Amino acid sequence: MPSLPRSLPPSVTRLVDALSQLPGIGPKTASRLAYFLLRAPPETAASLADALRDLKARTRLCSVCLNITEADPCEICSTPSRDRGVICVVEEPLDVTALERARFGGVYHVLHGVISPMNGVGPDDLRIRELLARVAEGRDGVPVREVILATNPTLEGENTAAFIARKLSGSGARVSRLARGLPVGGDLEYADEITLSRAIEGRQNL
Amino acid sequence: MASRTYQTDAIVLRRDDYGEADRLLTVLTPGLGKLRVMAKGARKMTSRKAGHVELFTEVRLMLARGRTFDIVTQAEAIATHRALREDLRRGSYAHYLAELTDQFAQEQAEDAALYDLLSNGLVWLCDARDPALAARLFEMRLLSLSGYRPQLMRCARTGEPLEVDQAAEGADVATAYSPAEGGTLCARAALLARDGFALPRSALMLLRVLQTRELDQLDALDVPEAVGDQVERALRRTFVYTLERALKSTRFIRQVEGAES
Predict the structure, then answer these.
(1) What is the pTM of this model?
(2) Fold held by B5-79
(3) Which neighbouring-strand residues pair with B185?
(4) Residues of chain B contacting residue A192, judged by C-beta atoms under 8 Å apart
């Protein structure tokens, strides 16, 4: 990384260094952001600083679904109208946000990653043990009827789903996987062989 | 002036998320060795490239030269190896083959033989009755290709014939094997080897078969589990010695095998 000019005050270089630690932000972008904050009204910088402080101070993982939350259990796990018998397993907290847009009515379980052997991430590094305990115990007298494996349709996501499915066999809960096929707005001509074959296998009557 | 675009076949070895919706791919090519290329927008659901640049897919890429990374402009899968996605055990071995290849491949250095070996290895994993045996065959071929073919017919240190070959048929005998010495050892040399360990005759025979036979011939063999384990240990120790590091994906294979049994 090119070193910053010595003429810059230490408080600016400190901010540039801190911003450069963020994913996808290089030294140039970090300098631009730092200068933007330097010129912005004091409230803008103060509100950003408060938000960053609260992020670490107030958030924790929900003790039930392991999603990021301020209250434990999280809002989704505390809502009585949610179907606690259906657990949707996702890779990351952002996947919960995406599925909430689709108005899923059950509850979630966040794995916080995906099996990636070449990056040294194995099943023990994910929250699979907590999921197995949750399925075995149920919650508030409601047994788990179904576990929907909603990991990404990547090879790592498929391997993770297969590993969990194997661990859940014999649990009594139905284990399902999100349907795979053509995306809305996609183009058949550019679809790969696996997507197309799965789309044909999963075709529906009209 | 060099063309701004070029085409190559490639196998996707690694894949890392990059920026908002891009993927940074580490691919092995026959003519250019290992390359790091950018697949822009490949994480979007509607991406035309995403399904073609999945892990372990053999793909024909059109690339545009970029400042830091070359950019994937078109991708068309040649072999998707569906069994590696749908069979966890086969998939776990595919990670291992890719990690091994990643360790041996050089950036920007032509290596068509290594490319062909991985391409075949992934097919073997999909087709083999036992993917573990397919992985052993890949390991042995990789050692030969990279100049580390173990000596299994004589003593690697003295060149003497092995005592195990002179013992009576059916006798329960073992020979010594040392990754540092480069293969099997006679009894005298075994005393001097620092990392030698005993290799039963049945395991030695399987190692020799791996050096000379093709997958369809291997697939017909009924290998006892203990013999398979001894051969796996010998080859894995050879790789740890050669690479001077342990491989990450072996832990996952053990976990998958554990979940299966």
Answers:
(1) 0.86
(2) OB fold (Dihydrolipoamide Acetyltransferase, E2P) (2.40.50)
(3) B176
(4) 50-52, 54, 77, 80
